[in-house]
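cron nightly-structures :: item 1 of 1
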Amino acid sequence: MPYMPGGGKNQIQTLETLLSAVDANEGLVTATVDLGDGVQRVLRDALKQIAPAGLITSLDRDHQALSEEARRWLSSRDPRDLLAIFHRHVRFVGELLHALEDGAKTVRELTNVAATEYQLQWTTLDQVRRRVTWLSVIGLTEYKTNTLVGLTDAGREMVPGLQLGGPERMARTAPAVAVPEPPQPIAELIKDLMPEVLAGRNPALGYIPRGNGETDLVQSLYLLVNAASPRISRADLLTFAQVTFGVSESSFSAVMTTLNKSGLLEQTGFNIYSPSGPATAWLESQSTLDLVLILHRRCLFVLEIIPLLAEFDKAPDLARAAYEHYGMTRVDVGGIRTRMQLLKAAGLISERANWRYQPTPLGERIALEVPLQSALDEDDDSIGVDEQATDSRPSLAAKLTRELEEAAVAGDAPVRLEKAVADAFSYLGFAARHIGGGGKTDVLATVEDSEGRPVRVILDAKAARSGIVNEGAVSFDALSEHKEKHHADFVALVGPSFDGGRVRARAEQNGVALITVEELSRVLRRYETTPRSASTFLSLVDSRPGARKDLEGGWSLAERRIMLLSQVVAVLAQEAREADEVTHGALSAEQIYLIVRDEIDPRPSTKDIEEVLQLLEHPLIASVNRTTGGVGRSITYRLIDAPGLVAAKVEALGRSIARVDTEA
């Protein structure tokens, strides 16, 4: 089931944006599209998410087109047309609605229905959650409680017209394929894999050098392990890696960490290393499957990928699933790609489409015979904070959002939305004052720009019971008068949604920014997790075409920096926990880059990482110790606090500053 960027409530809007971009660019897959999050994506990549859902067709290598079904829905915007597309092309959509006919169910119960009646062997709840999200935004299902999903009246009307795909009454059996017997040292490794052993494996597979891309991963590991046979000094192995792969001395430390933690090398003397017993057996058999079994014993989430391909068939989705359900310490996309390349080389998975994978018969057999870690699924069956579930103690942002959404359609109490808009902008850091009344502006908001100059904003709020603000409800002349009277710099109109024709045209002509309640609510929720300076939100009330993109671009950059901070702390924490004689628990900025480079888009630079390390090293936090290497050696950093203590130190700084605001 597709899942679009932007969260559950924005699925339809994002899908419309993507399909419209296909038409606007005549299907050219190298064109770019912004799906509302400020990130420019190539259409080829953006379309991969919806490719299986019957919404697009391929014309040639460089062009895609909307399917006739997609055009029909894009024209009608009828939920029944979108349901028909999904039900026709994606399993367990109409069937999910049918399963709710006899009463509300939890997501876990629906997952069990998918498994027992339709042979969909999902190991997590995500695929059902995706379907519930779409069916909810279409208006066919809703959360009756925090955990129980039920049909709406519209959903109940839809069920009788759905032709259900009958259950596949076939038992899941092992494919009839011969599995090679592993050498005895490797067989011993996997024989006693108990749940606690599987859960305690190393989450980081590590850095594997490939020179200029001339060698694949398996060949690289083989050359390194073979060079250490029967024994080799660290210095000689470094020389070999430099000559063979062009590895620098600082990067070689990361290579040694990989070889040691994966169980391929072991230290047999002072700075002397030899292949382990299982690694020696692999050198003799030269079977990539034997290598994968060794790595499965020592590294989290290796063979577990195979059954999970039924739910997530791309590396980014698998990386998120590994983090959420298998105990990975971070969303390690690069590490998952490495694992998948090894599984593919062993013949356990195959690429069925661009960057999409499926198990081979051998892979399915191995996944049934070798012990795997069970998914650590959530205890609750709710769709999550971002979707439908409610918190027993909602945050201020949640309260403001709820009031905005309810007030926006309370057409008989227009003052309610005016006050809600004033409260929302106050939360964002504006000095917002509700005025209201005949002939007066609804809200006057003031904020200092980045250079400290006061900027005034006129905010007009229009509630509409129908959910659409029409042209007749807005007096643009009055807005111009209010702007002149208050010497305002910007004018913005807030409402549930706006008539796509005349209102938008008049707003553009008069320099009035249009803000939907949904958009303002999204800003409030996002501000709660990633606050921004109040002046940043002048782009929200600016009618210039590129203003929203400026807001999104700056916000996305801030979020990526925060994500980088968490990634760096996670990497250093992992290294500190598993310190060895090679790294002594410390890593350089270059080594950290090799680990996190594929997990943040766009890739961070070593300068970005150094800035994070400087923050962690600052006396106000003092959670990192710097080690100055000798001549020609890189500076390394060691995390001396647990991640929870790092967070507590940062929170203490925040509380101290917050007291200043309270006292003022």
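cron nightly-structures :: done
The two ends are 51 Å apart (CA to CA).
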